[in-house]
Amino acid sequence: MHTATPISAEAPPRDGHGVLRKIRNGILWTGLTIYGILTLYPFFWLVISAFKTNADFYARPFGLPEVWRGDNFLRAWESSRLGSAFGNSLVVSAGSLALTLFIAALTSFVLARFQFRWKGGVLAFFVVGMLIPIHSTLVPLFILMKQMSLLNTYWALILPYTAFALPTAIFVLTAYLTSVPRELEEAAFIDGTGLWGLFFRIMLPMSVPALATVTIISFLHAWNDFSFALVFINKTVLKTLPLAIANFADGYQTDYGLTLAAMMLSVLPTIALYLLFQEQMMKGMTAGAVKG
Predict the structure, then answer these.
(1) Residue 44's Cα: distance from chain center in Å?
(2) 287 to 85, 101, 110, 124, 125: CA distances (angstroms)
(3) What angle (nearest 5°) sits at the alpha carbon of residue 177, between those of residues 176 and 180?
(4) Which of 11, 98, 181, 219 is the most buried (most CB within 10 A)?
(5) Is the separation of the CB atoms in 154 and 91 below 8 Å?
């Protein structure tokens, strides 16, 4: 026969640590929510302002449009030849990205997996390359491009973009490939795989997170650059997207509705690229921090 256990009338003592933990979590999430709103607000402002007229923009700069002008996007696309500019930016960005990934992957493979003399000096050379102010090279590069007859060509942008993207790309990829266990490399050599097989079949597929990080960083730099395109490109048919957007502003007035609509269109590919690679990018940014 079972006997009932009496229930104590006294409540258990309250856990003070649990209350403090909830308060800290509440403060943390509140701060993160406020930070997220502040971060996303400029994009929200861009979206609503892209549907305004100039008069509406001046009258209600931070409010919703009085009349939603969806035709701003079509007018911006046609009036400034955004289609051609999109194509030029895509060619330049994709070309520089392909060169950056190929050269950086090969260089990082050698630096991460081989020991040779002056290895530290080579790494220091690329680290110093990250410290060079990009725009301080405009005049020397313009003279060099003119002597090589590369002005007003895609190569006038592809080559500088690749050169300035390589230091960061090599730094990220080298850190990631260094964390790959040596046992995989030794097993591949035992199975008869050569250096090129090791690179293409093992190292390259394993470095996808780092490659995604490099892809986003390099693509954004080439896609959004204005100064190099302004100096090296004069032909209208070769102008990139930032130059086409700048055409909406002249010495007398700026059509903010069309300008912001064009900016909204130019931002969409970068958002899509980030959403596509965001998970791999997070893995690539933390690669090499913890080795196991």
Answers:
(1) 20
(2) 36, 17, 18, 20, 22
(3) 100
(4) 219
(5) yes
Q: What's 41-82 look like in SS3?
A: HHHHHHHHHCCCCHHHHHHCCCCCCCCCCCHHHHHHHHHCCH
CB 209 within 8 A of CB 281: yes
Domain shared by 76 and 24, yes or no: no
In the block, tokens 């190929």 appear at 102
**What CATH number is associated with residue 120?**
1.10.3720.10
Range of the domain at 165: 71-290
Q: What would the two tokens of residue 210 be?
A: 């780092």
Give the single-character DSSP code of 203: I
In a domain, 234, yes or no: yes
Domain count within the chain: 2
Q: What confidence tens digit (pLDDT) does each residue in 175-225 have?
A: 888 888 888 877 877 877 778 888 888 888 888 888 988 998 899 999 999
Structure tokens at 276: 């596509």
Name the pLDDT band for 117 (thresholds 50, 70, 90): confident
Residue owning tokens 């395109």: 229
pTM for the complete prediction? 0.79
